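Colleagues,

For the teaching module next term, I've prepared a clean inverse folding example: a structure given as tokens, and then the sequence designed for it. I'd like students to try predicting residues themselves before seeing the answer, so please don't circulate the second half yet.
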């Protein structure tokens, strides 16, 4: 997820990435990934993305639920394991196929799904290694390079590397996650946790932390005019 930003040649450092995702006090992000990225053997990046126009081919890694629509504040999307030859295609059956670089292909694809989102995208050639002790959880349809093997073609043994599409997103989904966490923790009776209090935790400090958690959850609301009754109930 952070490979491009850890390279000396990167135009966007990890610090700059963190600042871009931390707009308006939003200190948390959700992570998603496609392991492996569904690239057909002998195919190209425009072909793969064009076949997934309905929805992005990743699944959430964070326990926040899936992002069902295009509402997202900011995000960093990284696709690694795509060789230079696979990043573009000479023919132009679509807008994606007409792009001259892999970064532009991925950028246009992400923009089509998140048109109002500040997005940083990067395509890297280095694949993700999955050698021992990484468990071989892949089906026979995945070849050694992590590509979808052609129909009837042998897989050629265990997977050694694979292309990976990953995303870090500052998403409104986190509003409910943080809000529910605040409600659950508020219901706790600290007197039942003697070790917690004996460690030096002050009740007032605990209440301050709860208020900070509630404030953080508000940072992820798309519309502050909505759910006013819910927010008022949180304060009771």
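(Answer key — instructors only)
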């Amino acid at each position: 997820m952070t490979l491009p930003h850890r390279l000396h040649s990167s135009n966007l450092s990890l610090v700059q990435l963190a600042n871009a995702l931390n707009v308006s006090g939003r200190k948390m992000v959700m992570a998603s990934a496609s392991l492996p990225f569904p690239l057909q053997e002998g195919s190209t990046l425009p072909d793969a993305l064009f076949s997934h126009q309905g929805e992005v081919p990743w699944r959430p890694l964070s326990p926040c639920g899936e992002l069902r629509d295009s509402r997202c504040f900011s995000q960093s999307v990284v696709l690694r394991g795509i060789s230079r030859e696979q990043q573009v295609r000479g023919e132009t059956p679509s807008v994606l196929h007409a792009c001259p670089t892999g970064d532009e292909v991925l950028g246009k694809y992400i923009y089509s799904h998140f048109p109002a989102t500040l997005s940083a995208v990067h395509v890297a050639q280095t694949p993700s290694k999955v050698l021992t002790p990484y468990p071989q959880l892949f089906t026979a349809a995945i070849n050694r390079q992590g590509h979808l093997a052609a129909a009837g073609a042998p897989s050629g043994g265990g997977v050694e590397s694979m292309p990976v599409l990953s995303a870090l997103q500052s998403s409104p989904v986190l509003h409910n996650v943080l809000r529910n966490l605040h409600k659950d923790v508020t219901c706790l009776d600290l007197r039942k946790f003697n070790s917690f209090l004996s460690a030096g935790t002050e009740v007032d400090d605990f209440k301050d932390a709860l208020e900070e958690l509630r404030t953080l959850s508000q940072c992820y609301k798309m519309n502050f005019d909505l759910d006013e009754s819910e927010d008022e109930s949180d304060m009771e």
